[in-house]
Design brief:
Distance between the termini: 132 Å
Structural class: mainly alpha
Number of strands: 0
Number of helices: 5
Strand content: under 5%
Largest sheet: none
Helix content: 55-70%
Order of helices and strands: HHHHH
Length: 158
């Protein structure tokens, strides 16, 4: 009988250990089931809140009227800082040579017809209406620097 005692003792310890493991797993399963139920209740509550918000957003009775369209206001053109030349143009050696040639060409052109091209007249009329270089460039399908140059020419012609 003595030889069976250690076997019986080890079998009893294994049984107790297995029972404790089963109890641990059973309690854990119940705790997880309670947590799952709490989470499902919270999820149902959030779904109801979401449904209420969806109805509130998409209900035609409570929808605010759209704001009336605002009138279009032309933005002010950005102010440009003048570029400072290091020396007057007539003092530069290259420009001094060209000055005489340009003045003779301009005097010849002025004496030719005296009539401004149609594009210059059109730009002058658009400037008188208060349009800026950006709008004029879009209307005439030209670049903005070209429109600025035409505006400067129309002002000089006045």
């Amino acid at each position: 009988m003595e030889s069976n005692y250690p076997l019986f003792l080890s079998l009893a310890l294994l049984s107790v250990l297995a029972g404790m493991i089963v109890l641990f797993l059973l309690f854990r399963q119940r705790r997880l089931a309670r947590e799952r139920e709490n989470l499902n209740q919270e999820l149902d509550s959030l779904r109801c809140q979401l449904s209420d918000l969806h109805k509130k957003i998409h209900s035609p009775e409570e929808a605010p009227e759209p704001a009336p369209p605002r009138p279009f206001v032309m933005p002010d053109p950005p102010l440009k800082t003048p570029q400072v030349c290091p020396a007057p143009l007539f003092e530069l050696p290259i420009c001094a040579d060209l000055e005489g040639e340009l003045s003779s060409r301009l005097q010849g052109a002025a004496g030719g017809g005296g009539e401004a091209p149609e594009r210059y007249k059109h730009v002058a009329s658009l400037v008188e209406r208060g349009l800026g270089a950006d709008e004029i460039s879009r209307i005439l399908h030209i670049s903005q620097p070209e429109a600025e140059q035409l505006i400067a020419l129309s002002r000089v012609a006045r």
